[in-house]
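User: structure tokens for this one?
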Amino acid sequence: MNSEEQLELTKLQEQGAALRSQREGAQTELDVLQQEVEALRQRKENIENKRQRLRKSREGDTKECKRLRRERAHVELMNSEEQLELTKLQEQGAALRSQREGAQTELDVLQQEVEALRQRKENIENKRQRLRKSVDMQTSAYLTDKMAAKSRWTRDMDDRKREQDEMKAT
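Assistant:
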């Protein structure tokens, strides 16, 4: 090979090396750009997913609001029904208290009557005991008098018999 050809070959080799270097740089730049494109695509996908979640959330919020409104209306209805029931129960309670007070008054009257009957029974029992004691004392006095009379009669009879025996003896 002659020197021109050698120079041309060297020059071509240098140009080839420069092109390879440029190609490698371009490939690196292409890789970086592809990574950026992928990152942007991923970001776009994330944003779209977030939009969909927000849309679903808004739809869910709307559904939740409707559900809460229905629930609030139901609660208000239940509250009004409970209020009516409470009023009814309060009226029943007042009627029961009135009945209880009437029953308490009647019970007080009955207790007074029972106490009066108990006192009357006690008085009767006391009178019975006094009468029993009086009868016992009268019976005891009667028996004492009867025994004394019998004793006197027996003595009198013994005295008469002695007198009769003495008269017969004389």
